[in-house]
Specification:
It is a single chain. This protein has 7 helices and 3 strands, in the order αααβααββαα. The chain has helices at 16-22, 24-43, 50-62, 67-73, 78-90, 111-135, 137-151, and strands spanning 65-66, 94-97, 106-109. A 3-stranded antiparallel beta sheet has the order 1-3-2. The protein starts with 15 loop residues before the first helix and ends in a 9-residue tail after the last helix.
Length: 160
């Protein structure tokens, strides 16, 4: 029979329920799924998902954007970003141009992409307001600051 997990230093039995209650990873992932649902619902009429909206926002904010810079700003692997760009390119929202020599590829919003982003920002505001109201204004600001600290050097250093 398996033994209950114990604290390595004190030997005290650790309850999985207690771990679940204080685990940053579990609770951040759970909150992320809930928040993503709110944004996805708000963005539904635009045809964009929250992750696609985020990619477009970062590309627009970093212009001129490169694949490595966008991937870093999103804390995303380069290959994952390239997979996420596929549907956005197919929809005509973004265009990529190969960098010369060893320079990275550039990404830019197309006119269609900019129009989609402009429309999506209005829908984003609805979700943003809903979450801010649920959390309370001052806690929302604190949460954003804390999340920025967690993201560390990957945090966006752009004017929005």
């Amino acid at each position: 029979m398996a033994r209950a997990p114990t604290d390595a230093q004190s030997g005290v039995v650790i309850s999985p329920a207690a771990v679940a209650e204080v685990c940053f990873c579990l609770n951040l992932r759970r909150a992320t799924r809930a928040v993503s649902r709110i944004y996805d619902q708000a963005l539904d009429s635009t045809g964009l998902k929250a992750n696609q909206f985020n990619v477009l926002i970062v590309i627009s904010s970093l212009a001129p954007a490169t694949v490595p810079a966008v991937a870093q700003a999103l804390a995303m692997e380069r290959t994952t970003l390239l997979r996420n760009l596929g549907p956005l390119k197919a929809a005509g929202y973004v265009a990529t141009t190969a960098g010369s020599g060893r320079r990275p590829d550039h990404i830019e919003l197309t006119v269609t992409g900019l129009a989609a982003l402009t429309s999506a920002i209005k829908a984003w505001q609805v979700a943003q307001r809903q979450i801010t109201e649920q959390l309370g204004g001052s806690y929302s600001a604190q949460l954003l600051q804390g999340l920025g600290r967690l993201a560390g050097p990957l945090a966006l250093n752009i004017d929005m």
